[in-house]
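Continuing the series of single-chain predictions for the mutant panel. This is the parent chain; the variants come on the following pages.
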Amino acid sequence: MSNVRADGIVSKERAPDCYLKVNFDEFKTFKTETIKDSLTPSWNKTFGQDGLCFRYTTSGGGLSWRDNATADQVQSLCSWMVKKHLTIQIWNANMFSDEYIGECRVDLLTLCTGPSDYTLNFNNAEGRVTGHLYLSLTMVQIAEVSIEASSLRLSSLPEDGHPGPFSLVLTSNLDRRYAESKTNPSAEAWCPASFHDDVLVRFDSSLRDLSESTLNIAVYSALGDKKPDKIATSQVPLAPKILECHAAGGHAFVDFTAQVNSRTPGNTSKGSISGRMKIHNLPVFTPLYMSEGGFVVDSVVGGQSLYPFVPLPPILQAKGKKARDLNPKYGAGGHGAAAAAPQDHHHHHHHHQHAPP
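Parent structure:
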């Protein structure tokens, strides 16, 4: 939560001393500093240069699932989040009793599926507009995602001369702990080499970070007693796999094939690896991509969805809009996904929200 300011304040005084009372679903409540003698206050001390960050947890109405949420479960979770609110009141500080000027509220479903810039009206008890609030807010659902890989097969290597047997190490570039998951050595000492293990890679991620990341596979040659030698690497972009996983109902394995790259400088020839993967516990909610616009009083201006299947803010749902109408970044008309280049993303998220396990 950052860049919080107000204007157009209607107060009994010409130059009020304004502060805000912020209530995030009764989970976190706080007061800002008071800005003296101003009709255009800006609360930089409370929200700071980098914004105010906190982790928010909700039971999700006791909803839980093993793999990925079904359409009905997503609907139930949306109904749960829309009943919860961020409420912000504006007050004028006085010596004896503070003057209530007005308040605004936004439901949490809007916050975790909508834009990151908000223009809201303060309304007083009679419903009259008594000022405008501007803020940036990002609420990102983080889930413990796991990627299960099976039927792994190394068809060819980018160069000859590496004796097997081989083993594979799978990691995610999002895993801060760098927990790696390893196969047993292949029975074969040459390609094609098959791996009969099911390998699980677990890490915390938002849907957007996951979509911009890759599953990384390193190939090791494990000859005799020598320390295994890392001979090649491969990256599987996850956005197309998330789409296929969703299309298959969220509970099925999907096939993948990826290039294998040499670790020898200057060698551009490629090998090939294939297998099946299943992505468990995908986050349900993700904000809209915004280049401009935002949430303005009671409409959403601009915005691009991440996938054709993600939930949208209630205000857009009420107009009959679906995520597929908002030019999805991945999976628009069946292309788009293949072109999604993996990126290393290290952006900082303001509101963290945990899905039910």
